[in-house]
């Protein structure tokens, strides 16, 4: 009996100590609390907010959002992995600001309604996912608090191809849907979609708006660059105009423009993509013999400001990966215009983060000119990686006039 009373007493004392610890932390100056929380990786911050109601309130303070935004820009990014091979779609993430040795799976609560999806892009902590089977459902999803929103349906054509864009401008999230379609079947063997319709939706509204037609055929790739309040795409080469162009859509004015491209001699080829590095619009160009060049536009829309920032040599895939390269790679690549190498971003230590053949993630040190294979336990065999910068860490239902699930 004495032992039981002693055990209960110890438990009560332990509970008192825990309450005292929580009280001591909560009684710290708000500035100190926010400074500590702003340095946590997103996965740790989510766990912090789940401890108790008081800590959840601390993690939702508006001042913490601005501080976390500044800190996030200085920290390493989080990567989202989308795996749709074989058949079953899954999302995973790895946080380079925290423990980046283990890849964790993300639950998708809307998967019963949309089991097959494409990853349209990531913007300010939200993911945009589109139905890859029927092209009629689109979801906006916060993977770290499980809030999601099914967008209203828009116009569809029986025979169409879709190019998406997802961005944020002046307190508004906007989704762009570019539809290429055709009426009837042309005699030519080559699939041509000569007609177009551009639609745009502001999150929080119930209807898509038409922006008319577009005179460019854009390459379908996820998470194209959002710079200067504009989304950017690469145009496809045309029979009578083989030169590829950089096309932007100003999310404020909702107008398409052509952005000057760098004079690197390789942009007429198909092996390049756009991204954002250090806040600059950047072009990663895959050259001959496996060499990669990274160009940045240091002054937006000024052609002369393009400079070659990095030149990266050829990378040799690990033998284990090469042995598994079979016809499955063709199945995985048919859905998107995938390339041998994609530049994902730059880490805080200056190393460049690269994805090769949708199989491996490596870093490249531009100072010593060497690659390093990253050991990420739990990485799917085939994936598409997207940089995910977590800007909005409080409950988005308090920020946007949207009925989140």
What does this structure look like?
This protein is an alpha+beta fold and 405 residues long. Helix content is 18%, strand content 34%. The protein contains seven helices and 24 strands. The chain has helices spanning 2-26, 30-37, 42-49, 53-59, 62-74, 319-323, 328-333, and strands at residues 78-83, 90-95, 104-106, 117-123, 126-131, 138-141, 148-150, 160-169, 172-181, 195-202, 209-212, 226-227, 230-234, 246-250, 255-259, 272-277, 280-286, 292-297, 306-312, 341-346, 352-356, 360-365, 370-373, 384-388. Strands 3-2-1-24 form a four-stranded antiparallel β-sheet, with no helix packed on it. Strands 4-5-6-7 form a four-stranded antiparallel β-sheet, with no helix packed on it. A hairpin with an 8-residue loop joins strand 18 and strand 19. It is globular. It starts with a helix and ends in a 17-residue tail after the last strand. Mean pLDDT is 77; it is low at 7-21, 327-338 and 392-399.
Descriptive terms for the model:
7 helices; four-stranded antiparallel β-sheet; 405 residues; single chain; alpha+beta; 24 strands
